[in-house]
Amino acid sequence: MASINVLKNKFLFCIASAIIISVLVSSLFVLGFMKPVSERISDAIYDESKPFSEIKIIAINDKSIQEIGRWPWSRDVFDKALIRLENAKAIGVDVSFLEPESNQTDSLLQSRLDSLNGKIVLVSECSEFSDSQCSKWMKPIFNVETAAANVFDENGITRAVPATVDGLPSFSRWISQKYLNNNLSLDEKSYIRFSKFDKMSFSDLLNSTEDFSGKIVLIGATANNLHDFRETPIGTISGVEVHASAIQTMVTNSFLEKQSRSSIVIWIFALSAIISLLLWKFKISTATISSFIVLMAYPLVAILKFNSGTVYSLLYPMLAIVLTYFLIIGVYYLIESRQRKWISNVLGKYVSDSVAKEIMEKGEEALNLKGSKKIVTVLFADVRGFTSMSEKLQPEQVVEVLNRYLSKMTDLVFKHEGTLDKYVGDEIMATYNVPLDLEDHAIKAVETAIDMQKVARSMGTELKYGIGINTGEAIVGNIGSEKRLDYTVIGDSINLGARLCGKAEPNQILISEATNNLVKEVIKTKSIGEITVKGKEKPLKVYEVIY
């Protein structure tokens, strides 16, 4: 019975489960447990942004290498390319010029860079850091504006760019400022939206007549053998496309921000509470469907928030949903298993397998253990001639014969969907219409009695049955002391059934007027007049079943 009492505190249990899971998941989040996994899952929210039309990428691709020649190219190749870009508003060259080539070509390119002064930026890169300070810079040999090409890698994934690297502006920031003619005030770590841009082959640029007036032009490697690629939330893209995405984000002011820590914790507690309330309020099937809808709805919320500029954490809130659901369902399962075991061990001795199964499916409400009034039919069957027979047999023989009889009769009670209430010595008490509602319960009780008499005769011993049946209102429930309870029926109608059994002759079935009124259209009976029974002032009409 302890398992049933647990269910009475279902609300408190669900709320407690939500709090436990929320605290656990929040602790995992605060401690950074599974952070790389969380970041990678949240990457699924990223949507590829539409590329900014004012940004043009000149790709050093496989086609260009095949047409121009083996990499690295001579500096005069870049001189020719930059001639085509003189009208561009801002030019970024994501190519390292770390060593001299020749006085002639280096001077040629330096002259071209001088002519583009104020609109062109070359990349520098910090290759070594010490205590957050750059200890080794790789800078171009030319006298020209330069900016840091470094980006932030978090567990191998690029999601953000710095505003500065050891005091040197980032490549994307410097070019954006040239395009906007304005200094940008940025967070030290700017999360960017990524795009995949159309590209012009470097070799095509050399013969192109396209006008780049007012454009941002970036030159960078996209050839596979040059190995300048980055893993991003939208997949693997070239380094120059990362810079282009960062510039687009800065120019269009479409920065992303991470969901705040407090917001994540609030969502964890809120979603866990919602799941617990669903499981408390609704049936398991309904709550399961609703919980799944909540689980699917949260990513939709995250997508909407991404579109407005916030990257939501998916792992921890969704983990709270799943863990809360399975904790509560798991405990429900254990409680139900204990409840089924109790019903099987206790009620299984008094009802048929089919009735026991139905009770287990309906649960506690099927039993109404607190007590209720209900119309029931009660059957008492008492062995006649048992005393005289027992005097002729050894004790173990008496027990064997009686057990054989009682087993047969109990099977007949179960066959007709009755409930075995108790054995009183050699007497059987059975009830119908409890604990579950039973249509035609009076007819089934009388049919049980007829089968009992037929089976008793077929067994060919001296034992004979007198049977009494009555139908009426009785109190049904768990009755007894704190140490021992019995699920039984009590009331005047039950006592009358016992009195009729006492009046019945061997092989006789006596039923009350109330029972007769319910069975007379189906079962043949005859009136035997009125009899006086103990506890009743007026004589009662009694009928005998003809079988």
Describe this entry's structure for a reader.
The protein is α/β, with parallel strands linked by helices and 547 residues long. The chain has 3 domains: 2-43 and 260-341, no CATH class; 55-253, no CATH class; 367-545, 2-Layer Sandwich (Alpha-Beta Plaits), CATH 3.30.70.1230. Helix content is 44%, strand content 24%. It is built from 18 helices and 24 strands. The strands form 6 sheets. Strands 17, 18, 19, 20, 21, 22, 23 and 24 form an 8-stranded mixed β-sheet that branches. α1 crosses α12, α11 (284-307) packs antiparallel against α12 (315-346) and α15 (395-415) packs antiparallel against α16. It is rod-shaped, with a radius of gyration of 45 Å. The model is unreliable at 1-7 (pLDDT under 50).
- What is the radius of gyration computed over CA atoms, rounded to a whole number of angstroms? 45 Å
State the helical fraction. 40-55%
Structural class: alpha/beta
Mean pLDDT across the residues is 89
Separation, N- and C-terminal Cα atoms: 43 Å
Strand content: 15-25%
